[in-house]
Amino acid sequence: MAQLEIKNVTRRFGDFVALDNVSLNIEAGEFFTLLGPSGCGKTTLLRMIAGFDMPDAGQILLDGKDLADIPPEKRPIHTVFQSYALFPHLTVAQNITFSLRMARNALSEVNARLQQSLDQMRLAGQADKYPHELSGGQKQRVALARALINRPRLLLLDESLAALDAKLREEVQVELINLQRDIGITFVFVTHAQTEALALSHRIAVLNHGRLEQVDEPSKLYGFPGNRFVADFIGHINQLEAQVLESVHSHLHLSVAGLGDIIAPPLPGAIPGQRGVFSIRPEQVRIGMHNELAELKNHFSGTIQSVLYQGDVSVYRVGLADGVTVEALLPNSAPGRAQLFEAGDTVKVGWRHDAGMLFHD
After folding, report:
1. What b/e string do you get for 199-227 counting C-beta neighbours within 10 Å, with b at 16 or more?
2. pLDDT tens-digit profile of 252-285?
C-alpha cells in the first residue's frame, strides 16, 4: 500500500475545474514532484493534502486512513511555503521550536531537538539571529527545520525555491536532495520549473488543465514522454508536422513537411496515412559541414539563422526547406577542436534513424 493515495479527486471552483478525477500513489520516502504550468491544479492538490481545502469528489488517504475529517493542524503533515512564513520578531531558535513550545513539550526535549535541527540544517551559530539577518538560503533551511522538527509523515513544499536567485537555488536543490535522503521523510514538491523537477525528483506527476498527463521517473519523462504536451513541456523539443508512409516493426517511414522523407523509431499502432507530429530533442540534432553527416539516414541542408550562446552549450537555430526550422544544441567544450558555426553559415543537419518520436494528432 502506498503511503499517500489520491483517489479520483475532483475540485471545482464554480464552472472552473481545478482538478479532474486525479489519481496518484506516492510511496514512503519518495521525493515526489507535482509539475505543470500555472493554473494546472498542482497547488490545489497540495492544499487538499495539507487540509487547507477539500475535494468535491474522491479521497485522500495517508497510510490507508482517509484524511477528510482530520483538520490541518491534526494531520502529520507540514508545509513549507514560497514566502517561508517565518516570524520576523522571533529568533531562528524560537522559529524552529515554535510548535514544540506551543505544545508545551519539556524544555529538555525542545533543546535536544533544536540542537539536532541546527546541526542537520547547518545552522549552528545562527540560533540567536532574526530572519532579517539571514540569507535566502538560511531562511529556507530555517523554514525546513521548523517544518521537520515535529517529524511529520509528509513534508509539502509549495514553490519553496522560487524566491532564490539561480546560483543559490542550485545550492539549495543539492541540500534538499541530501536532506531528504538523510531523514527519509516523504517530500511532495510543487513547481512549474522543469529543470528543478528533473534535478530533485524520484518521480514526477505532470498536470495540465486539472488532468494528470503522465507520472514517471525524470529520465523516462524526458526521454519517453507519453504525449505531445509532456514532450513540449519537459525541456525543449523540435516538433514537425508529419505523415506516416510506412510502418514496420523496425521503423517508421515518414513524410515531414518541408523536409521530405525521414526514418523514425517504430510506433505500435501507426498506419500509413496517419498524421502526427515528429518530435526530436535539440541535443539529438547534429550539425556538420558539406558531407560530414552523410552516414546518417536523416540529413538535410540548411542555414544557421541564429546562435544562442549559453556558456557550456550553444543553441543553433537552423533554417531548412520551405521555412522549416530546427534547433540543435551543441557543447562548447567537445574533445579536440570543437566545430563552431555562425549565423549565415551553410550547414548540414541530421539525426539518427532511431532518434525522436511520433505523436498522433
Report:
1. ebbbbbbbbbebbbbbbbebeebbeebee
2. 999 998 889 999 999 999 999 999 999 999 999 9
- Whether 191 and 33 have beta carbons less than 8 Å apart is answered as yes
Beta sheet of 186-191, edge-to-edge order:
77-80, 154-158, 186-191, 31-35, 203-208, 211-216
User: How far apart are the C-alpha atoms of 242 and 253, rounded to whole Å?
Assistant: 10
* Distance between first and last Cα of the chain: 37
| Domain extent listing, the chain | 4-232, 236-360
The pTM assigned to this predicted structure is 0.88
Which CATH architecture describes the domain 236-360? Beta Barrel (2.40)
The answer to whether the CB of 325 falls within 8 A of the CB of 317 is yes
What percentage of the chain carries pLDDT values higher than 70?
Answer: 97
CA distance 206 to 306: 32
The pLDDT tens digits of the residues spanning 69-120 come to 999 989 999 988 877 788 999 999 999 998 888 878 888 888 888 888 888 7
